[in-house]
Design a protein that fits this description.
InterPro entries: AB_hydrolase_1, AB_hydrolase_fold, AB_hydrolase_sf, Epox_hydrolase-like. Keywords: Hydrolase. With 291 residues, the chain is an alpha/beta fold. It is built from 13 helices and eight strands. Strand 1 and strand 2 form a beta hairpin. It starts with 6 loop residues before the first helix and ends in a 7-residue tail after the last helix. The relative contact order is 0.14.
Length: 291
């Protein structure tokens, strides 16, 4: 078991044919894979560094760094597609047949898509906002619009405005947070990767392509998720408003929804204790023969 839970003490590498995947690992027990979201300066470590020790007490816990976000090698292509592929390469590379998946925002979509495509490999699924479809709120949400503005014209002021849209409590947007996000977000290769997803031109092109495509969107396939699923949501999420949870809550056969008050998009950070308590209760619960 890893006892040094620092960044350096948990950091590892996995070589693949497309490049190096970097990840953090701590703890022993059944495998639990944490998948980060998107946005300026994001990394898996920054999303989940505060939760790693708690989960590592019960699970062999991994934080995967997706390609194209400045830590793992960039695999090329659209970051969402390479992220989904990276999960499969990561699990196969480590010889992990079954895993519990926990994903924040984009990571939740990736985890859900993996659970649909590989139902026998996912023991349990936990998402933090992100998945589903706007029913009553405008789409895209406020946080996504601010993200597009920053991606097209990255200024410090736009970054701060976007960070405030991510949280309920403005005090969480510290100078330290701003600085670490700014440094990573403006690194040229990372910014170029982000523009494949969130420049206004790319976002509108992807939206048009989805409307014109005959392919079934992932949110209309949620009934295919076999794993027991915990949907966690910040009641004050301004990126993926809480009405988005209704479709996955209703369609995923074994889904339950936990809404956290006074909480924005980063439930694992802003309501850390309550989030960890709900997730651990769900993960440690015996499913009575479901698995």
């Amino acid at each position: 078991m890893t006892t040094d839970s620092s960044y350096e003490g948990t950091l590892k590498e996995l070589n693949t044919d497309l490049g190096v995947l970097r990840y953090h690992e701590a703890g022993d027990g059944p495998p639990l894979l944490l998948l980060h979201g998107s946005g300026p300066g994001v990394t898996g470590w920054r999303n989940f560094r505060g939760n790693l020790d708690v989960f590592a007490e019960h699970f062999r816990t991994f934080i995967l760094e997706f390609p194209g976000f400045g830590v793992s090698d960039d695999f090329g292509g659209h970051p969402m597609l390479t992220a989904t592929d990276a999960v499969l390469r990561f699990l196969d590379g480590l010889g992990i047949d079954e895993v519990a998946l926990l994903g924040n925002s984009m990571g939740g979509i990736v985890a859900t898509q993996f659970a649909i495509a590989h139902p026998d490999r996912v023991t349990k699924l936990i998402t933090i906002g992100g998945i589903g479809k706007n029913l009553f709120s405008p789409g895209p949400g406020e946080g996504i619009k601010l993200l597009m503005e920053f991606t097209d014209d990255p200024t410090r002021e736009r970054l701060i405005e976007w960070l405030h849209s991510m949280v309920f409590d403005p005090a969480m947007v510290t100078e330290e947070l701003i600085e670490e996000r700014w440094t990573q977000a403006t690194e040229p290769d990372t910014l170029a990767s982000a523009r494949k997803m969130y420049s206004r031109a790319a976002f509108e092109a992807n939206t048009r392509a989805a409307l014109e495509s005959d392919a079934t969107p992932y949110w209309a396939q949620l009934h295919k998720v076999k794993a027991p699923t915990l949907l966690t949501w910040g009641r004050d999420d301004r990126v993926s408003p809480v009405d988005m949870s209704i479709i996955p809550m209703r369609l995923i056969p074994k889904a339950e929804l936990h809404v956290l008050p006074n909480c924005g998009h980063w439930a694992m950070i802003e309501q850390k204790s309550a989030f960890e308590s709900a997730v651990l209760a769900f993960l440690l619960r015996k499913e009575g023969g479901d698995r």
